[in-house]
């Protein structure tokens, strides 16, 4: 029945015109909900996913649980060794894990969530000043679906983003409703990112500063996602299946849930843990680790409940024109482990990713040798 509903699209359906009409409102998905729609527009219809939702017995449940790693005690050499081993195992098997006792105070986490919610729920006229599809034209970019015109289906999600490193915007260029907390939170995430790259370097058998020294932690892009309550969540999705186009992602999610990871061909929930942050590897970390660390596909379901709010911090210089080349780390290569990817700049990788859109296929295959 579900697939039938999705496929009942009239032959005279003009998707391009509907996309443009939606884009021209500059009000995003929230604008549709505020208008009181009870049926979602056809541009949001998604085909059913080929993978099943995980249904495990109690005995299997531990096998399909996202690892939660406690970072407390890192100054103790024995404890640090244990944490590095946990990070390494999670990186190789899941590509996803949650961290607690990460050092960012709870009040800062709450404040950034309130700031993101505040941005999306402020007066439309104020928000529309930031609406653009040109990611390089403005320090702050707000829109719905970065790949609106290239993706096969539209996601039930609005987003604003800003590059907070290496060249942060002037304070007055940030949205007034969340500017102070954006600066404060970004500084905390940069500090945490440096620590995480140390642990990941050690897990790869490299010196702690290796990933930092090759500038994996140089760029930070902060995205504030807003998923309004959906009248027909079974027909659409919040974020399509994808893997991230960066080195590392640090995600703060609220208590609504909906994030799922594709693990052993099953969709596994990433349950909200109070005060925790979700860490996952991007394509670029898989590339430079020569497939040792996994960048796995994940998605966000649409929901009758909402709005769902999340803050994603991407360690990447993204679409900034940096000339540095990245390829598999030489120290990890051997006769038995030759390079699997060609070298690329972060800019070129992201340009390809952006053009391709969230089509359910990994961008990594394009860079394979």
UniProtKB/TrEMBL annotation:
Keywords: Iron, Metal-binding, Oxidoreductase. Residues 216-318 form the Fe2OG dioxygenase domain. Belongs to the iron/ascorbate-dependent oxidoreductase family. Gene3D superfamilies: B-lactam Antibiotic, Isopenicillin N Synthase, Chain. InterPro entries: DIOX_N (IPR026992), IPNS-like_FE2OG_OXY (IPR044861), IPNS-like_sf (IPR027443), Oxoglu/Fe-dep_dioxygenase_dom (IPR005123). Its cofactor is Fe cation. It comes from Rubus argutus. The keyword Cell membrane does not apply. Coiled coil: none annotated. GO terms for molecular function: dioxygenase activity; metal ion binding. This is Fe2OG dioxygenase domain-containing protein.
């Amino acid at each position: 029945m579900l697939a039938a509903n999705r496929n009942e699209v009239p032959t005279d359906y003009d998707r391009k015109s509907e996309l443009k009409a939606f884009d021209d409102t500059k009000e995003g998905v929230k604008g549709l909900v505020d208008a009181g729609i009870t049926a979602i527009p056809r541009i949001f219809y998604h085909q059913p996913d080929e993978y099943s939702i995980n249904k495990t017995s109690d005995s299997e449940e531990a096998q399909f649980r996202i690892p939660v790693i406690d970072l407390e005690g890192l100054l103790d050499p024995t404890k640090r060794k244990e944490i590095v081993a946990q990070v390494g195992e999670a990186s190789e098997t899941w590509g996803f894990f949650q961290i607690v006792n990460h050092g960012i105070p709870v009040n800062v986490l709450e404040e950034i969530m309130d700031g993101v919610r505040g941005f999306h729920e402020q007066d439309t006229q104020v928000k529309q000043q930031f609406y653009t599809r040109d990611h390089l034209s403005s320090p702050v970019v707000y829109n719905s679906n970065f790949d609106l015109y290239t993706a096969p289906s539209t996601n039930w999600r609005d987003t604003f983003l800003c590059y907070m490193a290496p060249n942060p915007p002037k304070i007055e260029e940030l949205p007034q409703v969340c500017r102070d907390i954006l600066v404060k939170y970004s500084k905390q995430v940069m500090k945490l990112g440096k620590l995480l790259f140390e642990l990941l370097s050690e897990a790869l058998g490299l010196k702690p500063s290796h990933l930092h020294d090759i500038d994996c932690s140089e760029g930070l892009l902060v995205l504030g996602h807003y998923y309004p309550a959906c009248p027909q969540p079974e027909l659409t999705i919040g974020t399509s299946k994808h893997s991230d186009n960066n080195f590392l992602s640090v995600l703060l999610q609220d208590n609504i849930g909906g994030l799922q990871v594709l693990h052993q061909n099953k969709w596994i929930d990433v349950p909200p843990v109070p005060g925790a942050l979700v860490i996952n590897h991007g394509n670029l970390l898989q590339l430079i680790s020569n497939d040792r660390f996994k960048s796995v596909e994940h998605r966000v379901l649409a929901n009758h409940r909402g709005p769902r709010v999340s803050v994603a911090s991407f360690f990447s210089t993204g679409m900034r024109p940096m000339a540095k080349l990245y390829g598999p780390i030489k120290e990890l290569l051997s006769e038995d482990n030759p390079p699997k990817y060609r070298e690329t700049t972060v800019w070129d990788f992201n340009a390809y990713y952006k053009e391709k859109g969230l089509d359910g296929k990994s961008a990594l295959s394009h860079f394979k040798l």
